[in-house]
Amino acid sequence: PMSDKLPISFKESAERMLSFAETTVYWYGSYYCVHCERSGGRCAFSSQRDRQFCMRGPHGSRIKVIAATSSVAAFVLLLLTVATVLYLSLKTRYNAEIHMKVEMFLKTYGTSKPTRYTFSEVKKMARRFKEKLGQGGFGSVYKGELPNGVPVAVKMLENSTGEGESFINEVATIGLIHHANIVRLLGFCSEGMRRALIYEFMPNESLEKYIFSDDSNIFQNLLVPEKLLDIALGIARGMEYLHQGCNQRILHFDIKPHNILLDYNFNPKISDFGLAKLCARDQSIVTLTAARGTMGYIAPELYSRNFGGVSYKSDVYSFGMLVLEMVSGRRNSDPRIGSQDDVYLPEWIYEKVINGEELALTLETTQEEKDKVRQLAVVALWCIQWNPRNRPSMTKVVNMLTGRLQSLQMPPKPFVSYENEPMP
């Protein structure tokens, strides 16, 4: 009985080993099966045909992957479509609100000068915007010409947040005023979302081009002490008119060399009223939701109310910084930024004046001219006092520049030392 069972057991074991070997060779050694499964099928073996074959069907792994990928792609595409439609809808609604706001303003503004032009007229006036004069904070400026041949500068307002406010500010503030030291607005265009402002052409560009020039001849022949005084006085008179001479007080909030344009005789004119704000003549403090202006020219109270309230004295501070740049030929920098090796411009000038040292632009001049530049610097140092109450009004600045320079007293330090400087 034992011998009868042994052959059977041995036979079964041999068959099982052979079957395992065949299966192992097939599943792990067959390139055909690997290719079959990668293509989405299922590999099988036929004992009748003694070979493997590929079973294809609708439930293959590849079909599942493709279906899943297609579903995700369709979902993402749907989200993008919904987001795009929502964005375009909100943008259209926003543009419509701005357009309505501007048109309501223009209806209230009336039909008096400056002249309103169509966009096609502006395009013809600017010769299809071929000659670009520069880039401002609210748009590009092109050279143009009125039908009567008068040269003009055409500012095309860019599509940006607050565009309607910028346009209204410009038209409302300088549209009806005329002063020798304020650039004149000759016309405007508001057609849909395309808006333009047409100014008198200023051939000598901005003051910034000259006071920061690397050409020493400019300082020797153009920005001589007498001319520096004339330019500072012209700017001061223009600002005095904005603060005291209009029916409503106009606060500019962006007085800087780039916004002071020069005419044929290098007389200064204040430009770019995109950040301006109208207020009552007797309104001493102005409420702002955020600081406005250019870094380096912004008064301390615009950073922090700890220094005082925002008023027309904030423009006085900007004027003082501008004049310090004029007399030094250097750009001012905010004391909170830059490397520790940088010298804060007001501090540098204050030390020069206190010690009787010459400023950069007073070299190779007479003693009388040096004294004029020194006194001009003293006026500027009064204007940048950190406490607004210690700054003079622009009327007083004009008086100091026209006849009382010799009696000026040295102001206290107009800056706070780094150790004691309060942070906003």
From TrEMBL:
Active site (catalytic residues): D254
Bilayer topology annotation: Single-pass type I membrane protein
Positions with a binding annotation for ATP: K155
Record has Cell division as a keyword: no
GO cellular component, one term: membrane
Entry keyword Lipid metabolism: no
Main localization (coarse): membrane
Keywords for the protein's UniProt record, in alphabetical order: ATP-binding, Glycoprotein, Kinase, Magnesium, Membrane, Metal-binding, Nucleotide-binding, Serine/threonine-protein kinase, Signal, Transferase, Transmembrane, Transmembrane helix
Highest taxon of source: Eukaryota
Family named by the database record: Belongs to the protein kinase superfamily.
Single Gene Ontology MF annotation: metal ion binding
Protein name (Swiss-Prot/TrEMBL): Protein kinase domain-containing protein
Binding sites annotated in the UniProt record for Mg(2+): N259, D272
Cellular compartment(s): Membrane
Record InterPro entries: Kinase-like_dom_sf (IPR011009), LRK10/LRL21-25-like (IPR045874), Prot_kinase_dom (IPR000719), Protein_kinase_ATP_BS (IPR017441), Ser-Thr/Tyr_kinase_cat_dom (IPR001245), Ser/Thr_kinase_AS (IPR008271)
All copies of domain Protein kinase, residue ranges: 127-416
Transmembrane annotation, as ranges: 65-90
